[in-house]
Amino acid sequence: MKRFKHLEAASVEEAVAALKEHGSAHVIAGGSDLMGCLKDNLWMESPEAIVNLKTIPDLDEIRREDDGLRLGALATLTRIAESEVVREGWPCLAEAARKTGSPLLRNMGTIAGNICQQNRCWYFRYPDKLGGRIDCVRKGGKRCLAVPGDHRYHSIFGAVKKCIAVNPGDTAPALVALDARVETDRRSIPIDEFFSAERGAVSTILEHDEIVTSIFVPNQAEGTRGAFRKIALRKSIDFALVNCAAAVTMQGGVVNAARICLNGVHNNPYRCTASEEYLVGRELTSESAAEAGRLAVAEAKPLLLNAYKVPMAGTTVADTLMDCAGQA
Ligand SMILES: Cc1cc2nc3c(=O)[nH]c(=O)nc-3n(C[C@H](O)[C@H](O)[C@H](O)COP(=O)(O)OP(=O)(O)OC[C@H]3O[C@@H](n4cnc5c(N)ncnc54)[C@H](O)[C@@H]3O)c2cc1C
Ligand code: SF4
User: Fold this and answer.
1) Does ligand 1 lie within 6 Å of residue 169's CB atom?
2) Which of 256, 227, 246 is CA-nearest to residue 292?
3) b vs e for 33-70, b when ≥16 Cβ sit within 10 Å of the residue's Cβ?
4) Number of structural domains found in the chain
5) Is residue 284 within 8 Å of 247, Cβ to Cβ?
């Protein structure tokens, strides 16, 4: 790992000023993703400084407000998973946090770090100390190595700017299903607009000197049921092959509104809008859930090695919806 300055910010303003001063700097929260990126020398320019956010007071609160839930950027996944407030009002988010990584990772990992993490494509993450740097498209090169290579965990919904790496996060689909907003030091971003695979070795639309301060999750309408499912190779610790979160509002036995999001299947979290539209006005039964699952993957364009993910994603959507129906 190359040497860097370690700066401890006492406030959000100080952290932003440090990022402005050091153009190549990155912020660190739990460090569970960032340290791997530093070790593998992921960025074209090695950061001259790392700005520690954990020294900023009160950035880790979990608070119920009149119109929703406020999660400080530094709230850890363990605290979110265990919070009575979150479990009662926004259970699919608590479940997504509970299914992220291992206990150790959840103790270190923060909600902001979880939604800002880099993708896990093994060509992208290849450590440059092992036989030299692999400069794929996402790292400023010309080629994607995964398309002709091993893409078994990659996108089934095509490429963004020639890259087929997937967004690997577990809380991201829950926050999309719950229609959250990401609050930064300068603006409020609807979660649907937050993720971006178009900007090289970053995964969000954040400016270089912009810091997530909190995430706001609105109160869910009366009759809303939420659920989260994750399919991974190992149960104890693994990234999702596919995960899904849904928030379904039922009135008089029929679906009034639905937000459904898959992840691990595309560069950004993937809203299943065709499934959402189909469900409105229908009863949530095993038949309608199966049809919503089929519609969720109707536009899939899998590659040679990842076609298995198509039925997996469709079934996960249907199962997540049935979890919602089971709570009714
Ligand atoms: C072995 C292993 C298993 C894992 N398993 C999972 C898994 O199952 N599911 C999953 O979703 N993730 C998993 N992760 C990824 C990661 O650990 C988690 O996503 C974790 O929540 C990241 O949070 P952090 O606070 O440690 O982030 P950090 O590593 O500190 O930061 C991650 C990124 O976010 C940026 N960042 C952090 N906070 C802010 C902020 N407030 N404003 C702006 N930018 C910010 C950092 O600059 C960095 O680019 C795993 C990681 C490892 C090493
Ligand atoms: S999928 Fe994306 S990150 Fe992976 S090799 Fe291709 S361009 Fe790079």
Assistant:
1) yes
2) 246
3) bbeebbebebbeeebebbbbbbebeebbebeeeeebbb
4) 1
5) no
Give the number of whichever ligand sits closest to the CA of residue 26: 1
Report residue 288: phi and psi, to 5°.
-70, -35
Three-state DSSP at 269 gives coil
The ligand with the least distance to the CA atom of 96 is 1
Ligand 2 atom with the shortest distance to the CA of 122: 4
Q: Which ligand 1 atom is nearest residue 239's CA?
A: 8
Report which of 146, 161, 164 is spatially closest to residue 200, judged by C-alpha positions. Answer: 161
3-state SS assignment for residue 193: helix
Q: Which ligand is nearest to the CA of 19?
A: 1
**How confident is the model over 173-218, as pLDDT tens digits?**
999 999 999 999 999 999 999 999 998 888 999 999 999 999 999 9
Instruction: Give the distance (Å) from ligand 2 centre to CA of residue 145.
Output: 6
User: Bridge-partner residues for 229, per DSSP?
Assistant: 244
Please work out whether the CB of residue 146 comes within 6 Å of at least one atom of ligand 2: yes
Amino acid, res. 77: L
Spatial CA neighbour of 90 closest among 215, 245, 226: 226
Nearest alpha-carbon partner for 157 in 303, 316, 315: 303
Q: Whose CA is nearest to atom 2 of ligand 2?
A: 163
pLDDT digits 0-9 by tens, 269-286: 999 999 999 999 999 999
How far is residue 202's CA from residue 95's CA, in Å, rounded to a whole number? Answer: 26
Ligand 2 pocket residue status of 228, Cβ below 6 Å: no
CATH code of the domain covering residue 42: 3.30.465.10
- pTM, full prediction: 0.97
* pLDDT tens track for 208-255: 999 999 999 999 999 999 999 999 998 778 999 999 999 999 999 999
Q: Which domain holds residue 70?
A: 1-328
